[in-house]
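Sample A.
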Amino acid sequence: MNSKKNYIPNILILLALSFTLIHCSSTKEATSENYIGLDSTLTKKEAVDELMVLMNMKEQVNKNMEITADMLAKSNPMLATYKEELQNFYKKYLSWKKIGDDIKKVYFDNYTQKELNMLVGFYRTDSGQNIAKKMPEIFRQSAEVGRKEAMKHQGELQQMIMKKTQSQ
């Protein structure tokens, strides 16, 4: 398979990883029924809005798109030439300005008001802010781990895609 086709699986893997990491960064510690940080005064929409601010979601989404472009450039030499174009594409279509409302809806639809209020309480703590602060670097390192592992098995994925393409 030629190098022009190699970038498609890489794009899909990195995009899936980026949104998974953003979402998963906020769940474990804040879901306890007895969590002290519970703030029941916020409406569900207010809780989502505040959570996005506390998690620095705007910065995280924008930074993660830059990281994704960097990872794509590293994983495919052909794409390295187009790194600036990748970054511009992400800024144009996948920036917080473009997808922020959709991400808020994901949180609104997947968490109860109580869970959102607990998450807000958690992200108001020093530990919550520490997670929010470190998340872009954690995402970068995690994406690099995923990229390296995917590259080890890229030939297998290409064979699977070719087999499927040939059988159609």
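Sample B.
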Amino acid sequence: MLLRTGANVEATKKRGQTALIVACSCGFDKVATILIKNGANIEAADSHGHTALGGACGYGFDEIATILIKNSANTSLMKAANEGHNKALKVLLEHGADVDTRDGGGNTALHDASHGDHFEALRFLLEHGAEFDVRDEDGNTALVFAASCLNVEGAEILIAAGADRKAVDLSDLSEFGKKVDSTREDREKRQIIVEILQGITNTAAPE
């Protein structure tokens, strides 16, 4: 209830304990899960350096420790995708990370990988079952991100994998192009993306 009314999920007690640290140290697994889903920082430490995981392990709450480890892996998965670290993606998925985990804004690792030139990360996530048409809280798919960032190859990879071209509003893409100081290269990329989305340019399936 407090979170719904805007309570700060990272508010601390006198010793710097967050609600998540307290919940995990007391064995409140449902509370801990709710806090994590609402963006609680798993790595936060109190003034003595104690973390939520330390509290859970110290008091023998194995189930909570498992929840924290998995969610920590999920958070790291998002970071690895955003930076295009393929080896890290592989390790994290092998250790239980959810390929479709979401951040506070509803973005998945695939959304993060589609921002930049992380083509191998995109392919890797898709090969491991990432849902390509998942929408964030603003209704954007990974393809929308790729198109908005003029990521031509990323858009091609996503469409070849089956992403819905209609998820991208071409009028928005054109209006965005008019508002920014585009270089000739940007204008060419935007035109290529428009043609891809309209089906004028063929896309090959990801290798």
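B remarks: The CA atoms of residues 113 and 122 lie 6 Å apart. The chain has a mean pLDDT of 86.
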